[in-house]
Amino acid sequence: MYDKLLIKNGTGRVLLDSDLMKVDFVVQPSADKWTIEIMGIDLEKVNELNAVLEELHMFYFERTERLMIIQKYWMYDLDQPQISYDEGSSTLHITVDNKIPYEN
């Protein structure tokens, strides 16, 4: 399985690329929302994301090795994402309303 996470601001600038930053992450349902847990992220990056919180758009790419098919998801919040950061474990949690599959 291959997964990739991109976080962009409202103008499309990439703020986080899980491949380039070499961070691990997990996307999971959370009640009627979705939570992205990003491990190994520093406080400076968290502050950068928090500064444009209302503009954040997450793009999640999921590919199975067997099928070599990439499923793309746009993840966003109708209001603004909820974030929390655990400095001890360098783990960021971002919770959003929507996870929408798309193709381009």
Structure notes:
Helices cover 12% and strands 55% of the residues. It has helices at 18-21, 43-51; strands spanning 2-8, 14-17, 24-30, 33-39, 57-64, 69-76, 82-86, 91-96, 98-102. It is mostly beta strands and 104 residues long. The chain is globular, with a radius of gyration of 13 Å.
Short description:
The protein is mainly beta and 104 residues long.
Fold topology:
Elements: E1 2-8, E2 14-17, H1 18-21, E3 24-30, E4 33-39, H2 43-51, E5 57-64, E6 69-76, E7 82-86, E8 91-96, E9 98-102
Antiparallel strand pairs: 1-2, 1-5, 3-4, 4-8, 5-6, 6-9, 7-8
Number of helical runs?
A: 2
Query: What is the level 1 CATH name?
Result: Mainly Beta
What overall geometry do the principal axes of the alpha carbons give?
globular
Strand content bin:
over 45%
- Taking all Cα atoms into account, the compactness measure Rg is 13 Å
Unreliable residue stretches: none
Give the CATH topology: Elongation Factor Tu (Ef-tu), domain 3
**Helix/strand order:** EEHEEHEEEEE
Architecture in CATH?
Beta Barrel
Instruction: Report how far apart the termini are.
Output: 21 Å
Largest sheet: 5 strands, antiparallel
Domains (count)? 1
Question: How much is the average pLDDT?
Answer: 93
- Biggest sheet, strands in spatial order? 2-1-5-6-9
Class from secondary-structure proportions: mainly beta
Strand count: 9
Helix content: 10-25%
